[in-house]
Amino acid sequence: MNSPSQTLPVSVQQGNIWRLAIAQALAGANAIVIFATAAILGSMLAPLPVLATLPVTIFVVGMAACIWPMGVLARYYGRKAAFMAGTLCGTLAGLIAVLAVMQTSFWLLCLSTFLGGAYAAVVLSFRFAAADGVAPERKARALSLVMAGGVAAGVIGPQLVTFTMNLWPGHTFAGTFLIQALVAMLSALVLAGVQLPATPAPVAGQTAAGRPLSEVIRQPLFITAVICGAVAYTVMNFVMTAAPLAMHFCGYPQSSSNLGIQWHVIAMYAPSFFTGRLIERWGAMPVSMAGLLLTLGSIGVGLMGIEIMHFWAMLVLLGVGWNFGFLGASALVLQCHSAEEKNRVQSLNDFIIFGLMAIGSLSSGGVLTAWGWNAVLWASLAPLLLAVLVLLRVRKG
């Protein structure tokens, strides 16, 4: 279900897409800094080795915990208010991480990554914000183009880590986190110029416009969208969280890990330049299916060996699979709600996805430490196969 909403002038639509794509790039760089450094720094600061990836898990928990409050903020005060709150969290995340390094505090690091997750919760709405005020037949393309901003993040983030990790002598990554805070502040300036159609704020004492959420979540299409989005993101995060630490355990230098993450993130977002067109031509379900199958292929590559090329090739395939799987699922969500329902339904979708993803992220470090890298890969197969079966069943139905 998707009722028409206010359509913005083409020039405003294009301006919004550019600004949101740039903000996606800057915010993506913030997230990459966390993924590239938190597990390694965590292994240095954690009281127990099994807690090494806890800061990354806390990042995901921060996303899951803040998606709904940020959605409520957007619903009452507009998306831009949520954007500004998110960039403030991103700035604080960088500054608190500097303090964590200076004081060698594992728990300050966890607080920092929680705030980074709050920032990421807002960034998730960029893809849906790009579709606001856009004609229905062009929504998938707008969503896709904003996600393409992550290509720049794939270049900026890892290089930011490589060139700043030793900028502050004696305090590894402190300089990186300081730059991270400045990047979040720059993102706020870019987002200030976004112009979105107004959504009527709920009136106190009245029920929300549109259908009850209980009715929305019973739609087979919504259930399919959530399962595919959750599996695409959870498996990607589960494997990516463990990959830098696994490369570290295999004796590869930080620069090799950074390069692997760089190409992974580029692979996550580069297909977005054409994913929207593929969705328009073939439909969201086939594109999401292709993403799940590519992710299965990435797991197969990872199981072939632990040479650096195995890690890099696996991460690239994992990124492309995530793009098709997650964007296809996001396009399905746009078909499940009216304009009045969008903030509630989109927030619910992301809350479910990242709540489940937090569980996978929490177990990633423990699985890697206890049973090794191959166990991480084998554990990814079951949810992928489940999502494939659900998609096949819904398409036949």
Automatic annotation (TrEMBL):
A molecular function (GO) term: transmembrane transporter activity
Record domain Major facilitator superfamily (MFS) profile: where: 16-397
Alphabetic keyword roster: Membrane, Transmembrane, Transmembrane helix
Transmembrane segments: 21-46, 52-74, 81-100, 106-130, 142-161, 173-194, 221-240, 260-279, 286-306, 312-336, 348-369, 375-394
Record-linked SUPFAM superfamilies: MFS general substrate transporter
Domain of life of the organism encoding this protein: Bacteria
PANTHER family (UniProt xref): MAJOR FACILITATOR SUPERFAMILY PROTEIN, MFS PERMEASE
Designated name of the protein: MFS transporter
